[in-house]
Every structure is written in structure tokens, then in C-alpha cells.
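Supplementary Methods S3. Complex input for the nickel (II) ion-bound model.
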Amino acid sequence: MEEQMRMSEHTSETISEYKARINSYQAGADPLVLQAKAPETLAALLEGLSTEDLGKRPSPPKWSIREIVAHLADDELVGAYRIRLILSAPGTEIQAFDQDVWARTGRYSTADVKESFTVYRTLRHANLKLLHALNPEKWDMFGIHAERGIESVRDIAMYYAGHDINHFLQIESILQQLCKTTRRTGVESQ
Ligand code: NI
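Predicted complex, serialized as C-alpha cells:
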């Protein structure tokens, strides 16, 4: 999630522009189907990359693939908590977090990519299991995000589907710079 916008490649974006862009990626597809496919897509993107490839930043302030995968793992943790929080306390306030601070304190730049990937895939599996079990009434439950306002469980599910794609495109673009084979994922920008 680009909660504070600063690491974003789209630093001129407002919160609402960012939100619209992220949601556009899933383009009407079932967010749960997209979310279920995502770990496999990420695995394909990471296939055969060297330590050097994983650590290469496209430019100094931008994240390397290693950092992006660590971010995806942490973000899945955030989603896991937010969904459960909303279900137990509808209307709850949802704090934003500073992803750059998380990247520093979580030492994303030296994170073990396999571990980050395993955390991401495991939490995604658990979150999807929960989401599939919810009735329509629960999908409508919401919290109030400090920056984005009302966010229902449905909004969050859609958002995460788009958020994956946003970062997969970012990885694709780094792979392109590294002259690695691209279009590993079939992910297409809108
Ligand atoms: Ni993000």
C-alpha cells in the first residue's frame, strides 16, 4: 500500500487518484480470484533471479525487488489485521502507516526474499479463507481509514487485488531494466 505516497513512483498523485489507479488494475475481475492467483504470479516473477538482481534499485529512492516483496508481506499482515478488526468492531478507525518507516525498521533491504514470499503466500491463503467464509452483510462492514475514509471489507479485498498488480508491474519494470525476460506474468497495465 502506498500509504504515505512518498515511495510511490507516482509522487504527484493524490490519495484519491492513487486509489482509483489501484482499483482500475483489477478491471472488474473477481478480486478473490485475482488475489488467489497472485502468489503464483509473484513466484514466476522471482524465478531465477540472482541476489544482485533482487537488490538492484531502479533509482536510489525506489525499492528493489527484495524490498517490494518484503513490503507485500508486511502489507498482507496489515490487511489481515484490518479485515479482522472491522469484523469485530464495525466502524472502527483504521490508522495509516508510514511504509518507509516500516521498510527501514523491518530492514527490507536485507530481507530474505524466500521468507518474505512465504509470509505473503501464507497470510494471503489465510485471508482468502476468511473472505470466502463471509456473508454479504459482513462484506459491507467497514472501518474509517485515516487517509482514505470509509473502507469496507469489500473495498479492502478489491484494493489488495489491485495493489498486487501495482507492485507486479513495478517488478516487471525493474526486470526490463535488468534486461531479464519480461511479461512473465501476463499482467498488463491499463
Ligand atoms: Ni504498496
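Residues 1-2, 71, 75, 163, 167 surround nickel (II) ion (CB under 6 Å). The longest strand covers residues 142-145.
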